Amino acid sequence: MDQPVVAFDWMRMFLGDAPPLFLMEIVFRTVVIWLWTLALLRWIGGRSIAQLSLTEFLLVIALGSAVGDSLFYPDVPLIHAMLVVFGIVCLDKLVDVVIRRWTKAKAVIDGQPHEVLRHGQILSDGLNIHRIGAFELMEMLRLKGVMNLASISHAYIEPSGQLSAFPAQQPGLGLAIVPPPELGTAPPSDGQNCCCSCGLLRDAPGQCPACGATGQTPASQAPKWKG
Predict the structure, then answer these.
(1) Mean pLDDT of 44-66
(2) Distance between CA 79 and CA 176 in Å, rounded?
(3) Alpha-carbon gap, residue 61 to 129, rounded angstroms
(4) Would you state the pLDDT for residue 127?
(5) Over the stretch 140-186, which tens digit does the pLDDT of each residue have?
(6) Can you tell me the distance from the alpha carbon of 211 to that of 5, in angstroms, rounded to the nearest whole number?
(7) Is the dihedral of CA 37, 42, 48, 52 positive or negative?
(8) Which of 3, 92, 180, 202 is surrounded by the fewest CB atoms within 10 Å?
(9) What Å distances lie between residue 5 and 12, 13, 14, 110, 119, CA to CA?
(10) What angle is formed at CA 154 by the lines to CA 204 and CA 197, rounded to 5 degrees?
(11) Are 78 and 127 within 8 A, CB to CB?
(12) E strand map for 60-182
């Protein structure tokens, strides 16, 4: 019968039931698994390290699970953990080869870019695919130094989740996102207005035909963005 757990048993909390020499074994296990995993990751190459796509995200999770147990469980042989790590890395390497050889496979496995902004107007369909809102997209643009939606001709959410944006050659009137619209916008004027949510230029009040929002604010001249 198992012994009852004694609260605040310092020996159990810090050292457990294993002999003190097992601490040295943990250090040895850590070094072996670390060197083995490092060698295999170097073999994978730069693609899997530079961008964390869906397949690489799964790789990190799988490696963490395979490596963790072998470090401090005495009944898990190192060779078992090394074999699991090797199998996971080989599978990722196979996926990498498939993605490079077949374009359709890349679209299925890694996904494909989606347009989220065109000529100063946010596209709701692209946002819905990635489950982000218009204000989140505006934040991503501000982090790139964009002050007005009309400064951008096209923007895409890449498969890696990063935003790629391209400057408009001749910026016109558009929705200013600096300061952020969330902090408040000016009321509509008698001049050219735009939707507070997607940036569509509006001539009449009411619901925006593009995104369904009702808020409007005066459109402003967009500065040229150098990217």
Answers:
(1) 61
(2) 59
(3) 24
(4) 92
(5) 999 999 999 999 999 999 887 889 999 999 999 999 999 998 888 88
(6) 60
(7) positive
(8) 3
(9) 9, 11, 14, 48, 66
(10) 35
(11) no
(12) 114-118, 121-122, 152-157, 163-167, 173-174
Which of these, 192, 159, 177, lies nearest to 225 by C-alpha position? Answer: 177
Using CA atoms, how far apart are residues 140 and 180, in angstroms rounded to an integer? 12
Cα torsion for 168, 181, 124, 116, to the nearest 10°? Answer: 30
- Going edge to edge, which strands form the sheet with 216-218? 201-202, 193-195, 216-218
| Residue 59 token pair | 């790789």
| Neighbouring residues of 51: CB distance < 8 A, sequence distance ≥ 6 | 160
Chain-centroid distance, C-alpha 44: 21
Interatomic CA distance for residues 213 and 209, integer angstroms: 8
Return the pLDDT at 124.
93
* pLDDT score recorded for residue 52: 57
Global pTM value = 0.68
Extract the tokens encoding 43.
């073999």
199 burial via Cβ count (<10 Å: 0-12, 13-18, 19+):
buried
Which residue type sits at 223?
A: P
Please name the amino acid found at residue 158: E
Amino acid at 143: L
Q: What is the pLDDT of residue 117?
A: 97
